[in-house]
Design a protein that fits this description.
Elements: E1 19-26, E2 35-42, E3 47-51, H1 58-65, E4 73-78, E5 81-82, H2 88-93, E6 95-99, H3 110-114, H4 116-120, H5 125-138, H6 155-167, E7 173-177, H7 185-202, E8 205-210, H8 213-219, E9 222-227, E10 231-236, H9 238-243, H10 248-254, H11 258-261, E11 278-279, E12 293-296, E13 302-306, E14 322-324, H12 329-338, E15 343-347, E16 353-358, H13 359-371
Parallel strand pairs: 3-8, 3-9, 6-7, 7-8, 11-12, 14-15
Antiparallel strand pairs: 1-2, 1-4, 4-5, 9-10, 12-13, 15-16
Helix pairs in contact: 5-6
Bound molecules: adenosine-5'-triphosphate (ATP).
Adenosine-5'-triphosphate is lined by residues 28, 30, 34, 52, 54-60, 211.
């Protein structure tokens, strides 16, 4: 998804909640409650993620926002108004909805699919198609795909069209139910990053359902962890969930390496860098023979490491991850741990070597922060 030139931001975080659940429960005729006494406030202009194991009431909760499901008890408010007092069809059309299966109409072209809701809202055909073309660009798809049918697109492209369709009426709220879970992990990570980029421009209120805690912590400004029986176990920003899960259920769900993952939220600003000894293919002969030597191209971008005593470029060892100066401690530690030399390569925003970082520095930084 690229620039969203024509879509104006609609809301800013920090004001009154966009959605409120007040003592909301839902029981179906069969058996135990799907949602039990839910109290939750969803921030305006932010991404809120509902996460939890299968059957814990995430989708039911999401659908109570647009009245696809009616609560058995309690009240859902959108923008301060009780949704039960609003006509269901109009309420539904006023919110974008993205599904796992993309839900595109198979016999309509991509452009016609995107234009569906504006057309239902009475926007003239031509105008709706122009808007649909703009939205194709917003979600990073080439204009040529507009004439195709959904079956002629990859899974990732279909999901992008699903997002474009949900954005077509420029709704302040987007409901997304496992939108990226049917695509492979690489495309999924790409779609997550693009949703984040898009959200920076659009500032929609997004409610996103997933059963994947990694996805939740990557994209959520706040994460609601649901437990079996439709109980809200914890509602917090992702860094807090990882650092301080409230009980064993949340700790177990968040996963074993949560300490390491929480480093993603720890800034590496001002992390000290060691000077790097570097050489290019052209200056190898005059480089010192002792120690690991970092090879760069003529522009200063890292190419690989030469072990001590080896000074022919064919002996270069590659594969360590890079740490972009100013990013997270997780990136810094990973660069150090994955580096053949034991020292992580730090690069500046243009990809040139800025220095080296070692794992000890990262751990010292954490220790210093803990001591306050
Ligand atoms: N229409 C329905 N009729 C009866 N029971 C239902 C209905 N929809 C959901 N349920 C039940 O309500 C509970 C919560 O379902 P829900 O789909 O909200 O869970 P979920 O957390 O979204 O699960 P998943 O991750 O598997 O989609 C489940 O026990 C489910 O079987």
């Amino acid at each position: 998804m690229t620039e969203a030139q024509s879509v104006a931001p609609q809301a800013s975080p920090g004001s009154s909640p966009m959605v409120q659940f007040r003592n909301v429960s839902k029981s179906y005729a069969s058996g135990q409650p799907a949602v039990h006494d839910l109290n939750l406030e969803i921030d305006r202009g932010a991404i809120t993620v509902f996460v939890g194991p299968s059957g814990c009431g995430k989708t039911t909760s999401l659908r109570m926002i647009n009245r696809m499901v009616e609560p058995t008890e309690g009240t859902v408010l959108v923008d301060g108004q009780d949704v039960s007092a609003q006509p269901a069809a109009a309420l539904r059309r006023s919110m974008g909805y993205v599904l796992q299966s993309s839900g595109l109409l198979p016999h309509r072209s991509v452009l016609d699919n995107i234009a569906t809701v504006p057309r239902l809202n009475g926007v003239p055909r031509r105008q709706a198609r122009i808007r649909a073309e703009e939205l194709l660009a917003v979600v990073g798809l080439s204009p040529a795909l507009g004439k195709r049918y959904p079956a002629q697109l990859s899974g990732g492209q279909q999901q992008r069209v699903g997002v474009a369709r949900a954005l077509a009426a420029d709704p302040p709220i987007l409901l997304m139910d496992e939108p990226f879970s049917a695509v492979d992990p690489v495309v999924r990570a790409e779609l997550q990053q693009e949703l984040l980029r898009l959200q920076q421009e659009l500032a929609k209120t997004i409610v996103f359902v997933t059963h994947d805690i990694d996805e939740a912590t990557v994209i959520g400004d706040k994460v609601a962890v649901f437990a079996t029986g439709g109980r809200l176990a914890q509602y917090a920003p992702p860094e807090e969930l990882l650092r301080a899960p409230v009980d064993d259920f949340v700790a177990g769900f968040v996963g074993r390496d949560r300490g390491f993952r929480s480093l993603s939220f720890a800034s590496a600003r001002d992390l000290p860098l060691q000077p790097a000894v570097t050489a290019t293919a052209g200056t190898l002969e005059s480089a010192p023979a002792e120690g690991w030597l970092l090879i760069t191209d003529d522009g200063g971008a890292p190419l690989g490491w030469l072990p001590p005593g080896q000074r022919t470029s064919t002996a270069a060892v590659t594969g360590g991850s890079l740490f972009t100066v100013g990013s997270s401690l997780r990136q810094a530690l990973d660069a150090a741990l994955s580096s053949p030399s034991g020292q992580g390569v730090a690069v500046d925003a243009t990809g040139r070597v800025a220095g080296l970082v070692d794992a000890g520095e990262v751990l010292q930084r954490l220790d210093a922060e803990r001591r306050g």
